[in-house]
Design goal:
305 residues, alpha/beta, TIM Barrel, 43% helix, globular
Amino acid sequence: MALVNFRRPRDTAAAADQAALADLLDGHSIEVMPRTAAGIADFPALLPRGTRVYIAHIDGTPIDEMVATAARLARDGFDVMPHFPARSIPDAATLDDWIARYQGEAGVHQALLLAGGRDTPSGSFDNSMELLGSGAFDRAGFTRLHVAGHPEGNRDIDPDGSDRAVMDALRWKQAFADRSDARMALVTQFCFEADPVIAWADRLQAEGITLPIHIGIAGPAKLQTLIRFSVACGVGASLRVLQRRARDVTKLLMPFEPTEILTALARHKAASPGFGIERVHFFPLGGIAAACEWATARSEPRERP
C-alpha cells in the first residue's frame, strides 16, 4: 500500500518560506564600527569565514582605528569592505593615503563609497560620484565598489521630498558601472517594510538601473532603539511599521526582529528570480552578536518541501 503524505498545506508553505529565507540570507553581510568591533573578542565564533564585513567610518574616527579594525578582521578570514565617506576626506592626497594603508596593512581591494554623515564637505569631495570620478580606486586596482541606495528617498539629496536627484545619481552610477571593470552594487539604508522595497527595486529595473541591490536590514533590537535610529537616519515611510508595533504595549519590551520583511522579500524573490535584490546587509543596531546569531540560525540548510 502506498503511503499518503498528510503534510498540511500550511506546513508546506512554512517550509517553503524557510527555504526561501535561507537562500536570501546566503552571503549576507554585516556592518561594524571600530568601537563596537573592539567589544567582540572572537568574530570567527559569530560569523562564517568569508563573510563580508563593512567597517563604518563615523566622522571623527581616526584612520588608524579604521585600518587596525580592517587588518584584524582580514586576519580572521573575513572579506573586509571599509567605508570611504566623501565629505570626511580633505583632499586627493588623503584619499590616496587611506587607500594605500588599507591595501598595505589589511589587503583591502573593495570599498563602500558614500557622501558621509557631515552636512558640508571638509575638503575636496562632496559625494560618491566625485570619489568614483577621481580615478583613485581604479588606479589602486580595487575590484569591487559599492555605493548607496535609498528605497525611501533621501531628504539630504532631495529636500523637496521627490527622488529626482537620487534617481539622476543612480543613472550616473549605472553608467559608471557599465564602463568600469570593478564590480558594483547598491547597498541601501535599513528598511522595515517589504512592499515599498519591492516597488523601488522593480522601478530601478524598469529604468535600466540594473546594479545588484544589497538590501539594508536592521538586526534584532529593542523597538525604542530602532525608532531612535530611524528618526536620526531619515527612514520615514518604513517607520510606520515600528509605530504600529509601538501601539501594542505587549510588544514594547520584546526585541523587534526582521522576520516579516525578509520573509516577504524572500518569497517575492523565489517567485521572481530576476528580482534585483541579491544580498542582505545587516545593521546590528541591537548588537553585533544578536544580528549574527539571528542571521546564522536562519541561514542553515533546511529540508526542502
